[in-house]
Every structure is written in structure tokens, then in C-alpha cells.
Amino acid sequence: MFDSLNYAILTYVGIIKSSLNLLKTFEGVSVYFKWQSQFETGIKSIDDQHRVLVSIIGDLERAIHEKTSTKIIDHLLSRIVTYIATHFSHEEKWLLFTKYPDAESHKVEHEILKQQIFDFHSKVQTKMPDIDKNLLEFLKNWINDHIMNSDKKYVDHFIEKKVMNWPPIVVMA
Predict the structure, then answer these.
(1) What is the mean pLDDT of the chain?
(2) Residue 147 carries which DSSP code?
(3) What gap in Å lies between CA 132 and CA 108, rounded to an integer?
(4) Would you call 92 exposed, middle or buried from its count of C-beta atoms within 10 A (0-12, 13-18, 19+)?
(5) Structural domain boundaries of the chain?
(6) Are 148 and 126 in contact (CB under 8 A)?
């Protein structure tokens, strides 16, 4: 009897776990951070890079939500730090190439963000409590604000300079 009761409990637990995993899958469609068409600048290489950033932030959000190990969260945050530096370098080359009048202030925004991300990364590595939620809110607010306000400002300038199809600089994800 114990074996059949054990089997029934394990089967029931397995069904519940499968249901929860399925729920998480559906939940991830609407809950986790994802690309939105309003983020599009119309500049393919920039949009492609923004998509990668949004994807990594979504992965980080999922990892935090699912309470994965600090090691995985640290790895995802390291990817964000590395990718942001690469993306900013690419974007700044565009700004300089086109002689964008606000290139310097845009670069300063990038430097401030890199420092803020570095500070968050240091706090995650020292396992400060509640940093995960603050980090996610910061990243999601930043990417939304930076793309929608700062990055979209240079689009008209790029159109005027006729560089919308300028070949992208190869960037590793």
C-alpha cells in the first residue's frame, strides 16, 4: 500500500509541477520584459541591438522570478554589462560619424548608465537583499526611457544625413 500511495503522490506532484511549468510559460508571454514595437528607431542595427538587450533583461527577469541561483543572475547581469558597453560603442560611432549635435550629452548618459549598472552588479555579487527587484525596475525603466526619449531624438538627424542603412558594426551577443 505504501508503494502505491507513494506512486500516487509522486504522480500528483508531477502533474502539479507540469501545470505550474505550463502556467509559467504562458505567464512569461505577458509578464516578462519583451520587445515592443514602440522601441523601434527604424535603424536596423540599433534596433537589433536593442532587441538583444531587451531579451537579456527578459531572461534576467525570468531568472529572478524563478529564484534561480545568484550565479546565473550574476552571469546574466555580466552579459548586460558587456552588451551595453558594446552597444553604446556602436551607437556612439554612429553619432560621431553623422556629427550628431548632442553626441556628447548622449555619451554622458551612456557613461552614467554604465556606472549605475556596474554598481548594481557589485551589489548582486555581494548578495545585497532586494537588489533583484530594484535592478529589474531600473533596467526596464532605463531601456524604455533611453530608447523612447534619448535614442529617438537622433533618428531625424540620421534620416537627414541619409545613413539609415549604414552597414552595421558586427556586435556579438
Answers:
(1) 76
(2) I
(3) 26
(4) middle
(5) 1-31, 42-173
(6) no
Indicate the class that CATH gives domain 42-173: mainly alpha
More confident residue, 126 or 13: 126
- The residue among 91, 123, 82 whose CA lies nearest residue 109 is 91
Side chain identity, residue 99: K
Only one residue has cell 552597414, namely: 167
Q: What is the pLDDT of residues 17-44, one digit of tens each?
A: 443 443 444 444 435 778 888 888 888 8
| DSSP at 39 | G
Report percent pLDDT > 70 for the chain. Answer: 72
Distance set, CA 107 to CA 97, 100, 102, 111, 142 (Å) = 14, 11, 9, 6, 15
Question: The C-alpha cell of 163 is what?
Answer: 545613413
Model confidence pLDDT, tens digit, residues 50-92: 999 999 989 888 888 887 777 888 888 889 889 999 999 988 9
User: Which residues make Cβ contacts (< 8 Å) with residue 85, sequence separation at least 6?
Assistant: 114
Residue 91 C-alpha cell reads as 551607437
Cα distances (angstroms) measured from residue 133 to each of 56, 62, 64, 136: 16, 12, 8, 5
Residue 45 burial (CB count, 10 A): 19
DSSP state of 130: T
